[in-house]
């Protein structure tokens, strides 16, 4: 049963009004507007020609093979970036936390550096290094007599290459977050574990990871949402190609708007993205929240 | 059960020498308390026994085994930490059985041991609770159970009562003494609180600046201190000390053995002064008395008749006086100087 709004404490409403106004104007309104557009055939040059088409945009998208490929690509990209980044960042953080000296401080800074470099520069460097003819990667591989790859140029290896660059850019950042979490674990717990004859892996799985589970959970959610919204990496490295092999939802939305000028379809794709991210977050909370230890 | 021996042990943190060439033997089955002011190296000593802060050089033996190269988990020691170091993500049961699991104790035996240990500390009904929902005293008990369950030959305790309130501390003190009587294993207990040391130990190791000042039973520590540091550290309020004129020697008497009177008396030392503070503690009263040379003496007595600002005579009987030389070492009755020092003291 809904409680009736009680206006006798009107002061409270006054206090929260600025925040509510902000959320209303900048969050709620755009979402509603997008939802409305997604049900229309939008004509931005002549708004009078905009007409209501019901779920046609959604029907069109979900029946199009290209869009389904885009959904699958986004899923694959998210799955692998999240798994790889979380795993490597955790391993690196545990190693860096193990012994703090000058070398580890340097490694920490070095790992973080990719995060502060613009994706544009990174893309330029990696496109060059991944060039099948004169790129560094293939030069090294062929000098070692290993099979070379066409990297970004082949639909088989393009997604892998994009994931590689994305991981390279983000691992250091997440490593730092996890390292921060690790450093807040009291040393005496590790000492107690040592006295309890706990092996390295027992300590890792029964003490370290549960202790940093809130930060890991946060990282997981932020990373999943971020990966679902990937755009710049794809735009700069492959333009969604070859043959749509690396096209993701946001890149598809971008193309809908700026190539096809179809705002209705783009917003429909946007709403699908919103629902997908929402659903996934909900699943995470349902499955994992019980296992997260909050102080 | 095992004795612990330190042989020529040195501990450095970077270039900072905390303990140098220390020799110490802790007897099998004893309740040994390491006591001393903050930073004296007592916790460092304890952590060396545990192996979680190994010595820089020298040898540590548990029983007749050199444990220098042995991992903490395999030394057959259990430790109770100052902040308990309970694993907050595990249930009470998980905390207690973690060590057993790591040692691959079979499930049924584990269950039996956990229940046994939990019963000893009276925490049976909390087995499935998370530590976050328990009070300080209860966490303390879990930490104890976690130690007991391993049936170690040495119990190490690092100020385990310092986070408890005064009443609970007294209660836990008694329980720890009982536990020691029941288990009859070696207990090594670190504290900075001399009252705790006096009330629990059968042997006290008093330390200062990384050096052992005296090893003795509580009563010897109190009655027969080897040096000025021991005399001042053990006993509360601390021993009254005053320099003897010209010689550089010192004389002291315990507040609880001190005399306070409105009339001059002709025993031991007798000094005149003014009462500057009167503390009523219930069964005793502490008077702080200041003489003309600005030395303050504390007298503990059950006589409540004196008042602040009153002119009084204070001192100690001859048999209650302690003498120390310029190096702060004790001068006892059979030392040659003793008689002349008594004369000096009388003339104060």
Please describe the topology of this protein.
The complex is a heterodimer of chains A (295) and B (348).
Chain A: H1 10-37, E1 40-41, E2 51-52, H2 56-63, H3 65-98, H4 102-116, H5 119-129, H6 136-143, H7 158-183, H8 187-195, H9 200-211, H10 213-228, H11 232-237, H12 249-258, H13 263-288
Antiparallel strand pairs in A: 1-2
Chain B: E1 4-13, E2 16-26, E3 31-35, H1 42-50, E4 57-62, E5 65-66, E6 77-80, H2 92-102, H3 107-120, H4 136-148, E7 154-158, H5 166-183, E8 186-191, H6 194-200, E9 203-208, E10 211-216, H7 218-223, H8 228-233, E11 240-243, E12 250-253, E13 259-261, E14 269-280, E15 285-290, E16 296-301, E17 311-316, E18 322-324, E19 330-331, H9 338-346
Parallel strand pairs in B: 3-8, 3-9, 6-7, 7-8
Antiparallel strand pairs in B: 1-2, 1-4, 4-5, 9-10, 11-12, 12-18, 13-17, 14-15, 14-17, 15-16, 18-19
Helix pairs in contact in B: 2-3, 2-4, 3-4
